[in-house]
Amino acid sequence: MGGTVSMRYRPLGSTGVLVSELCLGTMTFGSGWGLGGIDADGADAIVGRSLDVGVNFIDTADMYSEGDSEVLLGKALKGGRRDRVVLASKAYGRMGQGANDAGLSKWHLVRACEASLKRLDTDRIDLYQIHAFDGLTPLEETLRALDQLVNAGKVLNIGFCNLPAWAASKALGISERLGLAKFVSAQMYYSLVGRDVEHEVVPLCQSENLALLPWSPLAGGFLSGKYRRDQAKHPEGSRFATSKFGEFPPINKQLGFDVVEKLVETAARLHSTPTTLALAWLLHKPAVTSVIIGARRIEQLDDAFAATTIDLSAADLDAIDGLSAPADLYPGWMVKRQARMRMF
Prior knowledge:
Elements: E1 9-11, E2 18-20, E3 22-25, H1 40-52, E4 57-59, H2 68-76, E5 86-91, H3 106-120, E6 125-130, H4 139-151, E7 155-161, H5 165-178, E8 183-189, H6 201-208, E9 211-215, H7 239-242, H8 253-270, H9 274-283, E10 291-293, H10 298-305, H11 314-324, H12 332-339
Parallel strand pairs: 3-4, 3-10, 4-5, 5-6, 6-7, 7-8, 8-9
Antiparallel strand pairs: 1-2
């Protein structure tokens, strides 16, 4: 059963910085994407409640609501709040109509960072993340641009979001070889119905001491319990019904409904909620550093915060985990098989 929130803190990779195990995501701030429509007063209340329970990690991106998320977050961090948080933002997405107003070129990244600093009304971004893989820009060019921002004091640490493991590993090697700032974190989609990262990205994070920061831990709200197998359409006001992205992230519905039904059943027995259990499951994963949560209302936020207090037994964890555990892909299954040859 849940109780009073007792936030724990975990190292942000090898930085020596401690961040709360729940990170406030601000994609709902602003009205650009139909995901929340949170205005200045709402943003201030959500940030305030998060700080009150011990959250010290907040994530945004330049493209969220076309920059409005950063503006609203910057305002909400006034009055002494800014230095209480590790502030993260991201760049890659299109922020203008020009040919170079997107991507990971030095031309775009330097301008994007400067624009984010202005919108956030701060002198630095504590964790600056590339938001995607850019097939047009060599990784070395991107890493040199990020290193320039670190050396200028505009950025303290860098991370990546949505990179395949091979690209992230290559980037780490380039940084090591050239003496450039290295990625310290990996922000990736990870949920009970989205576990692809367990094949390659999770082992990379564990090997290279990267902080794993799951986004959309409820699979766009699917795991909240509001979606059921017998529904003819999405619940009114739900993210899948209102977002311009539709059903995002993609979900295997047959598997998804099996997971939701198990969460609902277990939550009823533990006097909890499916949301709380889905987040608590992620917090029990050893590679995870901080789970990114978002909300449109304070009660949704409090439901997420309860994940820090829920007591899940090993049996409950195994039962929930087993429903969606991904099968090993090659060469993963071969690595495990051949490892037995080394045993006596």
